[in-house]
Structure formats: C-alpha cells, structure tokens
Design brief:
- The chain is mostly helical.
- Helix content is 71%, strand content 0%.
- It folds into 2 domains: 54 residues, Arc Repressor Mutant, subunit A (Orthogonal Bundle), CATH 1.10.10.60; 115 residues.
- The two termini are 25 Å apart.
C-alpha cells in the first residue's frame, strides 16, 4: 500500500524500532532502514525525535485498536478486562515498545494513551454505577496501570491478582458483572 511521504516516514521508523529495538546508533538505524544519514536527518532531527515519532504512532495504534475492540464489550468491567488483555497482547507482540515505556516510566505519563484509556473507562463505569463514585481516578489509574504492567511483565496470569486490583474500584453491581465474565476464557484468547 502506497502511503503519503510523511506517513511512510513514520511507518518506516515505527517498524524499524518494533523489529530491532531502540538500542542502536544512528549509523545502525540508517543501515537497517537502507537509507543514508542525510535522508535520516532530513526526515528526523535526530534519533531522539525518531523515537518520539515512533512512540506517538504506536500510541495512536493502541488507542484505535482499543476503541475498536471495546465496541464488543457489554459494560465497563469487560472493557477494563479487555485493557488487561491488551496489555498482555502488547507485551507479547510489541515487546520493544512495552519495555521501552516500562524502563522509562512512561506508562503513567500525562500524555500516555494508557492513562487516557483508563481514566475514560473509569469515568464511564462511575456513570453506569459499576465503579465507586468516590474513587480518585488519577491515583487509581496509576495504581492499576503500575500493577498490571508488573503482572504482565512477569508473565503472571492470575485471575486473583486482577480481582484484587479491581476490589477498590468496583461497586456491588460491578462485582456481579466481574463474576459473570469468564476471565479464564478471555485470557486464553490468541493474541
């Protein structure tokens, strides 16, 4: 598929980092991409900017993918579990970006799509009386995201951990909805 030049530049650097990781010199990057140093510096101000462009593109992909997949969910509790599944998916299929964000403590940044998704989900759950209305959304989102990243990074697949993390958030109705979800099935889905 032919893309406009700006999109192609973004796509190219994103796929380079996705495939090869971020620990490369500019010379290694240009060699790996099959372009000259001059072309690289015409496209990007430097390696730092190329990394940021790739990350922003990845963030856009994540938001679009989550928005699309969440349409299949019946309620915010399912959407929150989908978020956990997506984090596992990212860890397995986009590990380069997952580890970069984790190592640089970027998951909980203000401009993080992960925080944005969680904040939106929690607000939706509060409006539908599935989540506690007095929850401190930014604090809980940070707590939840940090613990899910640790759980995912360690490769744990324990329903009990997820239930424990959701306890401060869920109302009685939210707990009923959680109990109705087949988490074993959800987390066994191919990623």
């Amino acid at each position: 598929m032919k893309r406009p030049l700006n999109q192609q530049k973004t796509y190219d650097i994103f796929h380079y980092y996705l495939k090869n990781g971020f620990d490369h010199t500019t010379d290694e990057i240009v060699a790996g991409m099959g372009i000259s140093r001059k072309t690289f510096f015409n496209r990007y101000e430097g390696k730092a900017q190329s990394v940021e462009i790739a990350r922003q593109y990845w963030h856009t992909i994540i938001q679009e993918r989550f928005r699309e997949r969440s349409l299949e969910c019946n309620h915010p509790v399912e959407e929150l579990l989908l978020f956990v599944w997506e984090m596992r998916n990212i860890r397995n299929t986009e590990a380069t970006f997952f580890h970069y964000e984790l190592e640089h403590n970027l998951f909980a940044d203000d401009d993080s799509p992960f925080m944005s998704i969680l904040d939106t989900l929690i607000q939706k759950g509060i409006r539908q009386y599935h989540f506690q209305e007095d929850i401190n959304i930014p604090l809980y989102s940070t707590f939840f995201l940090h613990n899910i990243c640790v759980e995912v990074n360690l490769g744990l697949n324990q329903e009990q951990i997820i239930r424990y993390l959701l306890l401060p958030l869920l109302t009685e109705r939210g707990m009923e909805l959680l109990n109705d979800v087949d988490m074993a099935y959800l987390f066994s889905l191919p990623q």
